[in-house]
Write a structure and sequence with these properties.
Number of domains: 1
Oligomer: single chain
Number of helices: 4
Number of strands: 5
Largest sheet: 5 strands, antiparallel
Strand content: 25-35%
Helix content: 10-25%
CATH architecture: Roll
CATH superfamily: Hotdog Thioesterase
Structural class: alpha+beta
Radius of gyration: 17 Å
Length: 151
C-alpha cells in the first residue's frame, strides 16, 4: 500500500488520511542499540531493577526511538525530498519493549515553496497494539510537486 505521504504535492488533498501503517514491534535489541547510538543510558530505559520501582513497573522505550521508528513507518517513497520540521510533539502514553506501534497521518496544510517543492504538514499519530495513542506530533515535509523529469 502506498501511503499518501509518498504522493507528490500536486496530488495531495487536505484532510486525507493515510490509514494505519504496517506494524513495528519494538525489541530489546532496538532499545539497547539506540542507547549505544545516543548515549542515553537513563535508568528508566536501561535498568530493569530500577524500572520495577517506578510507576510504570518496567523499562520504557525511549520516546525519541519511537519517534524515529514512526518516521520509517510513514515515509517509504521518493516524493518526500526532506524532513522540514516538527511541532507539537507529545508523548501520550508509555511504550514498552514488546509493544507494536503503527502510524496514521492526516494532512493538515499545504504551502507552496517554489516551482519544484511544496510543504506538506501532517498530523502524525502513533498508536500501540491496543489502539492507544502513544505519541502525536505535526510533521512538515519538503515534497516534490511532481515527479522530476530525470527520474
Amino acid at each position: 500500500m502506498q501511503l499518501a505521504v509518498d504522493q507528490f504535492w500536486n496530488d495531495l488533498e487536505i484532510g486525507h488520511s493515510t490509514g494505519l501503517s504496517r506494524g513495528r514491534t519494538v525489541t530489546e535489541t532496538d532499545v539497547v542499540q539506540f542507547m549505544m547510538l545516543t548515549g542515553n543510558w537513563v535508568e528508566i530505559h536501561s535498568n530493569v531493577e530500577f524500572a520495577k520501582g517506578t510507576p510504570f513497573g518496567q523499562r520504557l522505550v525511549q520516546g525519541s526511538l519511537v519517534l524515529a521508528m514512526s518516521q520509517g513507518l510513514f515515509t517509504t517513497g521518493r516524493a518526500v525530498a526532506a524532513f522540514y520540521g516538527m511541532d507539537r510533539l507529545r508523548f501520550r502514553k508509555p511504550v514498552f519493549i514488546g509493544d507494536t506501534v503503527k502510524v496514521e497521518c492526516v494532512l493538515e496544510e499545504l504551502a507552496d515553496k517554489n516551482d519544484t517543492f511544496g510543504l506538506a504538514t501532517w498530523e502524525m499519530r502513533v498508536s500501540n497494539q491496543d489502539g492507544d495513542l502513544v505519541q502525536s506530533s505535526q510533521y512538515t515535509f519538503l515534497t516534490y510537486k511532481a515527479k522530476p523529469a530525470d527520474w
